[in-house]
Amino acid sequence: METTLSKDYKERITPALIKEFGYTTVMQVPRLEKIVINQGLGEATQDKKLIEIAINELTAITGQKAVPTLSRKDISNFKVRKKMPIGVRVTLRRERMYEFLERLIRVALPRIRDFKGIQGKLDGRGNYTLGITEQIIFPEINIDNINKLMGMNITFVTSAATDEEGYALLKAFGLPFKNEKK
Predict the structure, then answer these.
(1) Which of 50, 58, 72, 109 is most buried, taking the most CB atoms under 10 A from its CB?
(2) Phi-psi bin for 121: left (phi > 0), alpha (psi -120 to 50), beta?
(3) Burial, 165: exposed, middle or buried (Cβ in 10 Å; 0-12, 13-18, 19+)?
(4) 3-class DSSP state for residue 13?
(5) Are the C-beta atoms of 55 and 68 separated by less than 8 Å?
């Protein structure tokens, strides 16, 4: 089953990017490779149940099982031991990635209060990270069951060589960037 965004990429976005950047072949057109959703949970050192809650929420949001991220070394000031769970992440690819992107653009982002668009700053290699402060913007999360607001980072990894190409790709997908350009 093909999602509307993956079909849209093949039928509308690819020809538009070929025209805009003058690619000679379809293989040069940048594409969205994966979306990585990451939640850093520093408070998980005190409260072990926080990781379980975060895994369940991220799994509900993405439709794919979330995995805990473990610390690499001991940091005594933060009461962190090596291999202690300190976050949760999910990597989405192919159809799940397109489904999540569509839900993010059409449903979740418009639910943010006083939303005026997202910053248009990419990382220099055509990738973009979006920070979200509250997980309750996703309709999969039941507000009554929330005991702590947790933010997350959503990273869009593209095959674009430059920020300009990555920005054009993500803008074509419908990410609501503010009117300024980088």
Answers:
(1) 58
(2) beta
(3) buried
(4) helix
(5) yes
Element at 87 (helix H, strand E): strand 85-92
Residue of 33, 22, 52 whose CA lies nearest to 91: 33
- 3-state class (DSSP) for residue 174: coil
Residue 7 CA to its chain's centroid (Å) = 20
Q: What is the pLDDT of residues 141-165, one digit of tens each?
A: 766 666 677 778 888 888 888 878 8
Q: Distance (Å, rounded) from C-alpha 56 to C-alpha 49?
A: 11
* pLDDT over threshold 50, residue 27: yes
Type of residue numbered 161: A
Between the alpha carbon of residue 84 and those of residues 68, 73, 80, the distances in Å are 9, 9, 7
